[in-house]
């Protein structure tokens, strides 16, 4: 059997096993028949065979019928939120209310298994206040897969919607890529920093966002590369933004903004001790007893250069401290370090 015949057999098998919508299955089968008829057993006589093969590979890799089962247990969700995030009780309450609505709607869904829509959450706040990690916690609480699409600096709406296959550099859009990565048609999809798109493309990108977030439209979202509608109605969209000034009114109308509060110094100390420090200690390869930070030192760590709404500066400071201690241990100068007010300046990064 020739290499061409082997490829055709493999692609036909993928089409049969992918459980595609009937119209799409007929379309891909027709494309493969045409490729085989014109190919005449030789790849050299079919310059566009690679494009056809790539198209078939893409449509058969998408989760047309694959879903995960939701776990809408509010007690478990609250435990996960409390484990992953300190404070933020008003925000957590809104998330739990949101999950409660989804549970009630799921319990009353019709025989077609069509889930009604709860409002789409949009976390608005300064950098480092936990917007992205909250979205990840929602996915963890629901037992759904999680992925994100970064909007920062996005300069072309085609990055979301894909490019037509008539273009030589045609590519699938980020939405379909995210679904392929998740392997599920009902993931939690984070639209990250939707206010930071390039000014020149803001109108076009906001137009695609309206289609993504509108339940009347996203049930038949069409990627230009695939040229076939995909049902996004089961995707749980979550958005983040630093502020709402640069978000189109039509998009805001489909979101429920939740303001993320700034952390106080006391809250940062608790977050640093309980969440950030153990994580960074592990990433640096240090054991718990190899680096001890005494309580009087923490106020110096949370505000080395002035007030910061989030915890990014605290993370950078703790990373710098761990690196200095790791070097001392590797060089054999010590086996453990206890940081006190007397020696803290030796370990703080120099700005």
From TrEMBL:
InterPro entries with a match to the protein in the record: AAA+_ATPase, ATPase_AAA_core, Lon_lid, Lon_Prtase, P-loop_NTPase
Keywords per UniProt: Hydrolase, Protease
GO MF terms held by the record: ATP binding; ATP hydrolysis activity; ATP-dependent peptidase activity; serine-type endopeptidase activity; single-stranded DNA binding
Lineage: Bacteria, Candidatus Gottesmaniibacteriota
Residue ranges constituting the AAA+ ATPase domain according to the UniProt record: 117-265
Protein name, entry field: Lon protease
GO BP terms: chaperone-mediated protein complex assembly; mitochondrion organization; protein quality control for misfolded or incompletely synthesized proteins
Gene3D superfamilies found in the cross-reference section: 1.10.8.60, P-loop containing nucleotide triphosphate hydrolases
